[in-house]
Amino acid sequence: VCERIRGARDISGQINSVDDIKRLITPDKLTKTALLRLINTIFDPLMYFVQVKCILNLTYRKALRLSGKIGWNDLVNPAIMPDVITAVTMLLEIRDIEIPRYAAQGITGNEAHLCISSDGGLEASCCRLFLRYPTADGIKCNYLIGGVKLASPGGSQAPKSETSAGLMALRAAKLVVTHFTAIKITRIFLVSDSMVFLGGVSSDSAQQKLYYRERNHFSRLLIKDLDVTLMHTFSEFCDSDAGSKFSTTNLAKTETYWHSFFFREGIESWPCRVYTFQDEHVTSTILNPQMQVRALVTRISQTLTDNIVNRRNSFREMVKILSYILNWL
């Protein structure tokens, strides 16, 4: 934490407890710049602490919303202080956690499974990858790498975050398979609680908006390339749920955070099933995407056409604009 927040460089400025947080991080010192430095205190390139990183980022976003348009040296709204205290407290709780250098300690042979969990919500998208491997004492599972990013502003945050989380998870899996060459990955599972994402990447006939169609296209390419098995589970068993929302409970202190809820168990006993596409999982379907009937009256409102006619005097320009619109429907 920067000296400007602590107010001292010596031992009196050290933060070792919740009392130190409340004594040193006060509303009269917490500027926009100081808060930005504070949330970037953690260095975690492999995203082991996705929950803490998510909470730090959400705290900064909330502070900006509460404070409005302020300068870098202006004080943030003091209403954000409880969230700041929660975030810094979690930083203190994880500072003594030790992570093994080798993700497959005690492995028998050199083959393993890559188990992926993805989840999205109103606040953020999250993915977490686990390495599942055999040992002399049975199956073990360790947290390998993760990812988290805030949800985009605007409407439909939850389905957009779920779609984004799935693509982020698959890209992380591709990174692992490409560079994690000491161990042979024999099977890859992607487990999600989102019917929106699973339906979007499983159907050949689902008609989707551009945001989903673009991301699901890249997801499908990675699923095919990596030969990923898609599975659906319930929200309470989703390992990535930890990094998709704000919480005051530090899950990094639990065993299931590092070893998964169920990936350590036999595959047949997992509380999930191989996903099978159903029409109701997406908004609408068509029989064949190559034989769509593009009808102007059903796709473009009268208000839009009137606006184009009033703004453009050339018939050629009108046709060009309508052609572009129809191309993206």
Features:
329 residues; alpha/beta; 6-stranded mixed β-sheet; 40% helix; 16% strand
Could you characterize the architecture of this molecule?
With 329 residues, the chain is of the alpha/beta class. The protein is built from twelve helices and six strands. The chain has a six-stranded mixed sheet. The longest helix has 23 residues, at 157-179. Mean pLDDT is 84; it is low at 283-300.
Mean pLDDT: 84
Counting helices, strands and paired strands, the structural category is: alpha/beta
Distance between the termini: 50 Å
Rg, please? 24 Å
Per DSSP, the total helix count is 12
Strand percent estimate? 15-25%
Please summarize the sheet with the most strands.
6 strands, mixed
Elements, N to C (H/E): HHHHHEEEHEHHEHEHHH
Principal-axis shape: flat
Number of strands: 6
**Strand ordering within the main sheet:** 3-2-1-4-5-6
Spans of at least 5 consecutive residues whose pLDDT stays below 50 are 283-300
Q: State the helical fraction.
A: 40-55%
Oligomer: single chain
